[in-house]
């Protein structure tokens, strides 16, 4: 080996070591920051993932998966991620539109199989696009765990499910919208909702997760803890992973779908959720596998409700990281809080999930999610 060649090898080795030490320093600083956040914000467990230039550059889990058994949280563990689940439903709809089985202009009455009309505006068609963007005027005042609440043939108070504004001319976040969308996915695909998502989203992207509790390894479930603000104590939330076996045994395709909660029932790890997020950041493609077109992905992300910045299961917010317009979604249920946000042009994104914390909100976001995202941004992206 010549002297010049040796110098080149040494220089290359030096760059690798320097980069490794820099990465180690970033991780060490970030983990110290996150541990301090957990102590100050009363966090049970925290799982995070950071994406940069289309790749996951950091994952870590802190705290407890299950307090009672003293089980530490790991990156393999899965959570019910709540409303981020809506994006899986919307992605499924876009696939069916591409297959020619649906249109965003379709009348929800035709799709649902019963009248879906705001009685104050009976001539205004409520479209699939309105349901996906929460502009349908439908609300959750009668609940959303069954389609019976909005079906005129099942609930005499069905009219209460509609708000005062004309469909398409206002915004109201509504879980019932997406449980209805789930039934439509079944009707048009011929597959049970949870199986459709597995076969057409999770399996192609090689992700572990799902909506059906009994189809997953129960040992991976992170216990979710509700916070009692009076006693300042956490208690397990047993309904978070309720298997609902009796309802599944008596399942009616195209109607019983809320059993799986298309609006909030996905169970997945932070790491796999980050891979799914990369697919959306890349407009439908992850590691050479495309599951929807760029046009479909853009339609999901583009603002429909201008004031709220909501598209179709994707919101655009400028108050999560100062000076950055972020695209994604949050989730909260049973004491869990989750966030999946990315910056489409700068190609970075962050996933944060906690299975229990003090539920303090600042400017519309859970404070634990906000400060954790900003810490990870400062340590790994900025």
From TrEMBL:
It holds the Pfam family Beta-lactamase. It comes from the Bacteria. Residues 33-356 form the Beta-lactamase-related domain. SUPFAM superfamilies: beta-lactamase/transpeptidase-like. InterPro entries: AmpC-like, Beta-lactam-related, Beta-lactam/transpept-like. This is CubicO group peptidase, beta-lactamase class C family.
